[in-house]
Fold these 2 entries.
Entry 1:
Amino acid sequence: MPIEIRELVIKVKVEEKMNTSQELLDMDEVRKSITSICKKEVKKQLEKHKER
């Protein structure tokens, strides 16, 4: 039976940029982070499904 994730919550904190020497957002890191969170949620749902 497939697992359906109906909601993906992405929380961010938006701040005014104060320092021009700050590093730029690394999209690869963002992608890895989101993928990791999704994998954890899928595993959690699989475990929950097995308990039923």
Entry 2:
Amino acid sequence: MKWLLLLIIPIVLIFGCGKQGLEGVDQDRAALESLIESSAYLTTDEHYGNEEAEDTKDDILPIFWWRGRPAKIEREIYITIVDDSAFVEINTTIYDTLFIQAVDSFGDTTITLYKKPYIDYGKRYAIFKKDTLPSYFRGWRLYALSGIEVISDTNTVDIDSIQIEWNGNIEMITDPLELQNRDEVLTFSPNEELIITVYTNDVPAFVFLHTPKYGHPHRWRLQYGNGTYHGWCLCARDGVHHIAIDMIAQPTLLDSEYPYDSNAWILPYRVE
């Protein structure tokens, strides 16, 4: 994650001084910034960069595609402190490039590399409580968090909801920005198999999953059928991770001129 943190440009606004005055608020701001940047629950790069894939060798002309490492990341963190609670909104703007290796027609052996610069806008929420040891980030701890929704600057595709099934359990997610207690995030066993169903708006698209597999970034392609996208993946190893459900308009990958057009939900989960 070091490359990501070096690229982040934080802009932090804090409202509400309480009884501790401006100096105390500044100290709390610095502590919360550090906690946000160091928390596995709130940082992720699993949606960007090259990765192992099992997705694009079917009936489409692209041979392979990937997002680059972002050239620039801007992050605005808005913090409202009320007594011993801090309410946080994190907005991230990512300047990146989509790379597509493709042939012009079936049977063609000439591979062309297409580059599509784009901008992604991400949002998530978190709540912190000041109720632990003062030596630990001035007593602040992460209490609740949402997932992340990412929308590209050109956008026609929209994820409606996601169903996750595992070991007899079913979880339906209708809003990636809904806050949940940190201790109640989705929790799986190591190498648990997840069955994913994604409901979307009626726009021709490809849907992918991004999450670690055996310690490496990996991408799965979901198959379309009966109005939904279906697939499965394996959980990462022990620890806190994120799974990205990534919807991309078909022309983004099939048309050399059509711009990058995407909607992604990035959800935290824990493996133990």
